[in-house]
Amino acid sequence: MHFIDTHTHLYLPEFDIDRDEVVNRAVSNGITKMLLPNIDADSVDQMLSLVNRYEGICLPMSGLHPTSVKEDYLSQLRNVERVAQKTKIIAIGEIGIDLYWDKTYLKEQLISFRRQIMFALEIELPVVIHSREAFTEVFSVLDEFKGKSLKGVFHAFTGTFNDAEKAINMGFKLGIGGIVTFKNSGLDRVVKEAGLENLVLETDSPYLSPVPYRGKRNENAYIPIINRKLADIFEKSEEEVASVTYQNSTVLFNL
Ligand SMILES: [Zn+2]
User: Fold this and answer.
1) Which of 91, 115, 152, 206 would give a disulfide with 61, using CB separation of 3.0 to 4.6 Å?
2) Is the whole-model pTM more than 0.90?
3) Cα of 127 to ligand 1 centre, how many Å?
């Protein structure tokens, strides 16, 4: 079986001591590609050095994460565009709205989200969306771009079935990771209704480890655990889930 981890922060310091081993474990578990969402200007160099070291396996994105939107957001946004012009990136991400950590910069978050969507449309790339306690705001921005052939993924999706339906109707996939293995997450029923053809796999490592590693550092090699959980939910073979989600990811990110 082959898998794509569509969302991993493998460049973060959490992996400094054993990054090569983490990648090796992932590759021997069938993970052929790992997609790297960017956070802000500070994470670019580390991300790109990984892309060089694991050529063809680690693929970069460019984006300003909503929790990194501060006073300097305009220069950060220019940097997002600069990186995209210098490097072959696969998506604009991660971008979106986060009202869980801090609402101080909501206005700037909205401006940044819009501007990065416009840029993604201009260079014809998908967007990777981070939405935390912000579905209303995220959908209202996406509504402004109706009919514009925008596509992308709601990463670490945790919404209701209504949210899922709305996202899918707007041309988005749902990124499913460790949360689906948590007891009482309720996400199993939502993803089943959403349908396998609308899902892609992700770890969001080092965060959101699946059971039985919940609370510990997450890593790319755990992707088959998510795949197995989806196979249970959909009552399909692991091979079929792997193959459909792999295909969904290659189409979405044009890999
Ligand atoms: Zn992320």
Assistant:
1) 91
2) yes
3) 13
